[in-house]
Fold this sequence. Notes:
This protein is an alpha+beta fold. Helix content is 16%, strand content 33%.
Amino acid sequence: MKKMMACLLALLVLSMALIPAALAGTSTESGRTQVAGSSGLARVLDELPPFKFEKHAYGIGYGTCPVYSAPSESAYRCANGRAACDTNSKMDDAGFVSGWLMVRYETNNGGVRVGFIPPKYVRGFTSSMVPHFGYVSAVANDVIYVTDNPMTHGSSFATLSAGESFHILSKYNYYKDRGLDWWYIECTVDGQLAYGFIEVDSDFVLGSGGEG
């Protein structure tokens, strides 16, 4: 009887030792993001600082200004090239990027848009916010939807195809408790520079996508 109990105890200990090892080897991914080349890229991605917006209940008083998806007048402009922000109404700002004011505002259809106002339209405005961007290379594994509205799911102004390259600039997770968790990226849309948001669990590979 004692020998039988000893054998059962030995088998139990052995099975408990094997279970964690099996579970630990089931995945090397965070969400569906994979790392190609340097493993240090994953750390760089994790360390990208999130950015926030300062709210202006009555605007900042510069009238209606054009808004581009990225800080360049050659960048993609949403709303069929007519995106604009009424800065005399409720809006938010995240600070300046290369002299361009990063703003978030409501659109006429009830949505929200994030983009950039050219420097000449907001001369004299001083922001208390300072967005910090990185520049992490990535390649899409599958179709990825790009949106300028981080306040809801299901909207997009562009898609990235599998194999298409882009760069991760920052993260926006201020409303993570509501299920709104994003990477902020730089990409190309219709041959033009564009910034936008992608779901945090989008399917992409960090780095060039090849061996390195």
